[in-house]
Specification:
single chain; Isopropylmalate Dehydrogenase; 11 helices; globular; 11 strands
Length: 313
């Protein structure tokens, strides 16, 4: 447990070399969400624009001693309007990231997904947890545990690619991707094993790029070398996975929460696949986790900025 937060601290150290990213914070109308924006600003990760009822935001800032005097505020009457206004700032190019405040996730995502908002891309939108598990020597990405309930094979292609692109933004070259199931053999009776095999073949054919895929793999032999050796699995991924692709949202949610509540892991959340990264935080998140979520998104936005610069050059 001595390693707790170590991976996040390394991530945040990288963010200190970047300029603060313009970020629309949608409806920061409780202490947790407003404090998260203030602290991320103090670390130089984001340059927040607060979007929500001005009177409520200012009252919360006074109540908890938070200095928001240097932040612009876009005044809105309620949470739905806050989501709409925050998304508008992103679609107009005035901010490079979105951050969820105290509104419901579906309120924000409904606005993001509206075709008229202009934030959708050809890529399927998906969620990633970047997890700092004290017992592991590396951060682990789990996807998708929050957006896609029962993704199809076609949707899983985008889910995997989003996670690989995230790993690259975090500085990981050729991440090892484990496509999880309950077993490591392909069985027609277990559809997730068949889809895992198909995803690996698609990677071989160049339909998924940038990572090393293997699957199906059970969780134990995906992250534990001893378990992989006992089962005689010869694979560059087994026991060393950086990315865990779950069969469906239920499995991913239970895996992430099990790590959080039984292994003292922290889970930084981000939504990918839109034109801007979207920071998802929870009221139950620790300060370090909230900052890590901002840091992950900042690294993604910076990677996109650099890619756009290269494309122009």
């Amino acid at each position: 447990m001595a390693q707790k937060h170590e991976k996040y601290q390394q991530l945040l150290a990288r963010c200190r070399t970047l300029a603060p990213l313009p970020t629309a914070v949608a409806h920061p109308c409780d202490e947790s969400s407003l404090r998260g924006a203030v602290e991320a600003s103090q670390l130089g990760i984001i340059a927040p624009t607060l979007v929500g009822p001005r009177a409520r935001i200012e009252a919360i800032a006074r109540q908890y001693g938070l200095d928001i005097s240097r932040f612009p505020i876009v005044d809105t009457p309620h949470s739905h309007a806050s989501a709409e206004a925050a998304v508008r700032l992103a679609s107009e190019g005035k901010v490079e990231m979105l951050m969820k405040g105290s509104l419901h996730t579906d309120e924000l995502m409904t606005e993001v997904l509206r075709k008229e908002a202009g934030l959708r891309t050809a890529r399927r939108i998906s969620h990633c947890f970047v997890m700092d598990v004290p017992a592991l020597d590396r951060a682990i990405i789990i996807t998708d545990a929050a957006i896609n309930i029962f993704p199809t094979l076609e949707e899983k292609v985008d889910i995997v690619q989003n996670a690989i692109d995230l790993a690259a933004a975090l500085g990981l070259k050729s991440p090892k991707v484990a496509i999880l199931s309950a077993m490591e053999t392909v069985s027609p009776k277990v559809p997730s094993t068949v889809e895992a095999a198909a995803l690996c073949k698609m990677a071989e054919r160049g339909q998924i790029t940038g990572g090393i895929l293997d699957g199906p793999l059970a969780l134990d032999n995906a992250i534990n070398l001893s378990a992989a050796k006992i089962k005689q699995i010869d694979s560059p991924v087994a026991g060393q996975a950086d990315i865990l692709v779950v069969p469906d949202l239920e499995a991913g949610n239970m895996l992430a929460k099990s790590l959080s509540f039984m292994a003292e892991a922290d889970a930084a959340g981000i939504v990918l696949g839109a034109r801007v990264p979207i920071i998802l935080t929870s009221r139950a998140d620790s300060v370090t986790t909230r900052l890590a979520s901002c840091g992950v998104a900042a690294l993604v936005a910076n990677a996109r900025r650099e890619a756009a610069t290269r494309a122009v050059a």
